[in-house]
Design brief:
heterodimer, A: 3 helices, B: eight-stranded mixed β-sheet, 16 helices, 21 strands, about 20% strand
């Protein structure tokens, strides 16, 4: 058997080669197309994910911001409230101080002797006639009996009078 | 607080013979006309002021429990003035927006709470004939509570909890959110035996309401004197009664934790040498608790109402413990929290099947909340009861062997817990929204299972049979099986 001439072989393999080439091209094209599709899909997915992450981050940021704002608001309100209350307390203490001061000034008035006498009487009513009654350093009297005493000093009386005023004191800070 | 005892003859006399100081007790001798529970003002040689309550009086001796304790007191220079009556507090709107300690003294840096009138903190029992039955709801903004155990104006509804559950969070949330449909509303929050962390949590959670002038906050912390703890709920109720019946407001009084209160009562009772009863609590625990809880209500011909929400922890989860047991006798239902639900991460961890508001029918339903409210609540509870049976069955035969309907009940439970009950602790939920969520949970069940709801409502909400297309159980709609995603679709269908 003689081998076929080389050009004969080439001719015979041509359709095979062409077929292989065609199918390789087709495969490559399909692969390319699929890759492109997949890339596009991946890209879309990645974009969607990025969007979702961004949305979530934005939402979270807004929520954090709202929380922080609420905290700030609460703190600010608390500060405002505590300042108001502190101012009221100051006014209240000033009033007590002022009232005690004014009542103590009674000592220098003409009517003081009569007031003192009434206080002394009251001390004896409370503690009995044997009670020992003495002048208080800030005006008024202190009565003492065994095991008990009454403080009818002017300062204490002013304090009690103020206590009895109750809600009227609020006129200091209320219209 | 304004030292408000009337300056009567008895109030002016100061007794100077203190025979003995023992623990928190001071024994004052040579006294006359002193009665039990009388309030005492004590002045030390240094001028420092303390306060006390008469625990016992016998002939010329009085045993005084000093609220601030007797540490640093020298019996020599002590003067005790008996006010002639139990503690009285000023009452009025000046309390609103204030934060005070357990005996009503300011913690907020403000002046003493001032009022033109004072009232005895022990309160006067309401004339039963003048009581009006509770009606109309107080909406708490907590969906599961509003929908299933509606709180009614004038009711007393306790929260039963166990240490470790978020009952304080729930109490604070209710105190922060509760409303009465636009009518004047105030909250009095009495915290008893709170840790400092808890007290600061409560202050933060209620800040907005406090600033709005709708809240009275009384905080007795765990290290405050026990006798003060006994005064705290009484002061709260006294303030609330005045705000309600004189100032025409609906007032919700939240008292937490009543178990701590009862323990304080036990401590004082032991100091008085009384014969202990069950678990060493005094024999009068029942009547003492009743004297607090029964101060809620509405009065004929008077506006306003006092609603009481006591919170108590059951030691070791024991519902037969004297405090929850006796509380349960007096109150009108209970809201029970469950450790199991809490473990699943649901807030509020309501044990819906053990919870009940006995007066719910007076405050919910047509003309009060929503026409379908009572039906939806009843159906939700009925379905939950069935869930319990199904769970037991599943434990025996395995989930796979359950009937399709039974499996729907397991889905219902998920929807119930996660869509209906679960809520953020800073989220106010309107009743309408809660009921819609209730519907959404119910619609996971086949129509045949919703026999407590009228057909008209089922049609309106689009309830479907088990084998109808569109029902989550139908084979055509298998994608609806995975939980809540399907519920939205179902509800909108």
């Amino acid at each position: 058997m003689t081998p076929p001439a080389p050009d004969q072989t080439t001719d015979a393999l041509h359709p095979v080669r062409a077929g292989l080439l065609r199918s390789a091209h087709a495969d490559a094209a399909a692969l390319l197309a699929r890759t492109e599709r997949e890339t596009a899909a991946r890209l879309d997915q990645a974009r969607a994910e990025a969007r979702a992450i961004l949305d979530e981050a934005r939402r979270q940021g807004e929520a954090d911001g709202a929380d922080a704002a609420r905290d700030l608001l609460v703190t600010a309100r608390r500060q405002a409230r505590s300042r108001t209350l502190a101012a009221r307390r100051e006014a209240y203490e000033e009033l007590r101080h002022e009232a005690a001061e004014r009542v103590r000034e009674l000592r220098r008035t003409d009517g003081y002797a009569a007031v003192r006498e009434r206080l002394e009487q009251r001390a004896r009513v409370l503690l009995g006639p044997a009670a020992e009654v003495s002048e208080h350093a800030e005006g008024g009297v202190v009565g003492r009996a065994p095991g008990k005493q009454v403080d009818l000093s002017l300062t204490v009386l002013a304090d009690r009078a103020l206590d009895r005023m109750g809600g009227e004191v609020r006129s200091l800070w209320e219209p | 607080m304004n030292p408000s005892g009337s300056m009567s003859l008895s109030g002016a006399i100061e007794y100077t013979h203190v025979g003995e100081l023992r623990g928190p007790l001071a024994i004052v001798e040579g006294v006359s006309g002193v009665g039990w529970d009388e309030y005492v003002r004590i002045t030390l040689a240094s001028g420092e002021r303390r306060h006390g309550v008469v625990l016992d009086a016998d002939r010329d001796r009085a045993v005084v429990q000093v609220l601030e304790g007797t540490a640093g007191m020298d019996p020599e220079g002590v003067r005790a003035a008996f006010t002639g009556s139990p503690l009285r507090v000023p009452v009025g709107t000046d309390w609103l927006g204030r934060v005070c300690n357990g005996r009503g003294e300011p913690l907020d840096g403000g002046p003493p709470v001032l009022g033109s009138h004072t009232a005895e903190v022990g309160g006067a029992p309401l004339n039963p004939v003048r009581r009006e039955p509770p009606s109309e709801p107080v909406l708490t903004g907590v969906g599961a509570v509003d929908a299933l155990t509606t709180l009614v104006r004038g009711q007393k509804l306790p929260v039963f909890s166990v240490a470790g559950l978020p009952h304080l969070e729930l109490a604070a949330q209710i105190a922060a959110q509760a409303t009465t449909a636009g009518e004047a509303f105030s909250v009095v929050f009495a915290g008893m035996g709170l840790t400092h962390a808890d007290a600061s949590f409560v202050r933060d959670a209620l800040e907005a309401r406090s600033v709005a002038g709708e809240l009275v906050l009384l905080l007795n912390t765990a290290d405050d004197p026990v006798i003060e703890r006994i005064l705290t709920p009484r002061i709260a109720l006294t303030v609330a009664e005045h705000l309600a019946f004189t100032e025409a407001r609906h007032v919700l009084v939240v008292m937490t934790d009543m178990t701590t209160y009862a323990e304080a009562l036990r401590e004082v009772s032991a100091a008085r040498g009384e014969i202990p009863a069950r678990r060493a609590y005094p024999g009068y625990l029942y009547s003492d608790l009743a004297s607090l809880y029964e101060r809620c209500g509405r009065l004929r011909d008077r506006p306003g109402s006092v609603t009481v929400l006591p919170v108590l922890t059951m030691p070791a989860g024991d519902i037969t413990h004297p405090v929850p047991d006796l509380t349960g006798y007096i109150t009108e239902g209970q809201i029970v929290l469950s450790a199991e639900t809490h473990a699943r991460g649901v807030y509020p961890p309501l044990d819906a099947l053990s919870s009940l508001s006995r007066l719910m029918r007076k405050g919910a339903g047509p003309g009060r909340t929503r026409d379908d409210h009572l039906d939806v609540a009843a159906q939700l509870l009925a379905a939950l009861a069935r869930v319990r049976q199904v769970r037991d069955l599943a434990d025996l035969v395995g989930q796979a062997a359950l009937s399709p309907t039974d499996r729907r009940y397991l889905d219902f439970e998920e929807a119930f817990l996660w869509d209906f009950v679960d809520q953020r602790s800073d989220e106010p939920r309107a009743l309408d929204a809660s009921l819609e969520r209730g519907w959404r949970a119910l619609l996971t069940l086949p129509r045949s299972q919703l026999s407590m709801l009228p057909a008209r409502l089922l049609d309106a909400h689009g309830a479907k049979g088990l084998d109808e297309p569109g029902h989550p159980g139908h084979p055509d709609d298998l994608d609806h099986l995975d939980g809540l995603d399907g519920l939205d679709g179902e509800a909108s269908r």
